[in-house]
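User: Quick sanity check before I run a bigger batch. Here is a single chain. Can you write out its predicted 3D structure?
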Amino acid sequence: MVDDILELACGTGIWTQELLIIVKKITAIDASEEVIVINRSQLFPLSNNDQ
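Assistant: Done. Predicted structure follows.
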């Protein structure tokens, strides 16, 4: 298990979901706010997503 990962250009979260299998904490960054919103909705479909 890895402690922390910084994922650059995370996009819509395809790899973010895979990385969460091996990591305790992930910071996912993308230049597009729209894809960050999609990424969060993929990972936390029932949450508020206002993080």
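The mean pLDDT is 90.

User: Great, the batch can go ahead then.
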